[in-house]
UniProtKB/TrEMBL annotation:
Subcellular location as annotated: Cytoplasm
Main location: cytoplasm
Protein known as: Cell shape-determining protein MreB
One Gene Ontology term, aspect cellular component: cytoplasm
Similarity comment text for this entry: Belongs to the FtsA/MreB family.
Amino acid sequence: MKFFGNDDDKKEEQKRGLTNSLGIDLGTLNTVIAKPSGDKFDLYQIPSVVAVKKDDASTVLAVGEEAKMMLGRTPEDIVALRPLRKGVIESIVQAQALLERAMEIGTKEGERIGRIVIGIPGDASEVEKNAAEEIGKKAGAEYVLVISEGLSAAIGAGLPIAEPDGTMVIDIGAGSTDLVVISLGGISDIETVRWGGDDIDNNIVDLVKEKYNVQIGIHDAEAVKIEVGMFHCDEELENLSTQIIGKSIETNRPKKISIDSEFVADAAEPIIKEIISGLNLVLERLSPELITGIYNNSVAVGGGSQIRGLKERICAELSIPVTISDDPMTVVAKGAAIVAAEPRALEPEVRLKAMK
Ligand SMILES: Nc1ncnc2c1ncn2[C@@H]1O[C@H](COP(=O)(O)OP(=O)(O)OP(=O)(O)O)[C@@H](O)[C@H]1O
């Protein structure tokens, strides 16, 4: 990554004590915090969950791990909720509590947060962006910059974002998938597909019910997806199998069933179809100048990018070779941390916003 740093600016910031910066990926499922530390990053992760009073959703009682433990087993007057749904902030108060916790985790005692960069979905509206910025400021950061998760991922993955040729990021998250084309340091196109890994889990639950007359929990469905999951593709991928216990709908008794990769691929088919359709739209709009860059520099990130068969399926359907990030869950936060430490990593217009 080439930075355009200016030593005077840095000294100025140091004078003001703005030495601590954080990158935060405010995700539907997990919030990842990256703190630059020399050439590397300190990384932290918390579940994007808050526990609130049932009759007053603005009174936050617990955040992160503690709140996650309460999911599904809270006392009557408490509910555990996710402040983001499909990548969109649902409750500002709750998202603020989450962000405050994230900043606390990334800060040593006595340290002040100078600048945070928050990655949010690229198709977020101005209102949502402003809300995220507001939340960051209220949570105690001096400077807040909100950037697209896709751009952040590209920076974190070390893609050549400043080149005119173009690069593409496919970010398959829990609730949504962002398809982001970047050139000359900015986003030249974005398509958000409101489908992601969570929808695969839901489809697994439904398909198990339909095929076996058995109810399984959503967490078991996710575990199965992670263990044996794949997308249908032309390549012969190993058909793995695992067993889970569900509740028989007929007898109400526990019932053991086997689920294999082909089964998960059937459940995941509507989601990969939506992703391919989104990519088709991006390609339709793509200017021919960017096609070589997309061919040479497309990367898949996000938890869902780890499902086997993704790159094979995309290459077969769209003739685009995709590299799967070896760091899919933290790359957005890392990219945000790079920008937080050095806003000139972005193009001039965005930099101006960062410095305001
Ligand atoms: N090894 C894995 N194989 C397949 N799926 C995985 C794996 N690890 C995590 N996932 C899935 O990835 C999703 C979470 O990804 P990620 O943390 O990137 O999402 P997020 O940033 O919280 O969501 P969003 O981007 O929608 O706000 C979940 O659906 C999870 O089940």
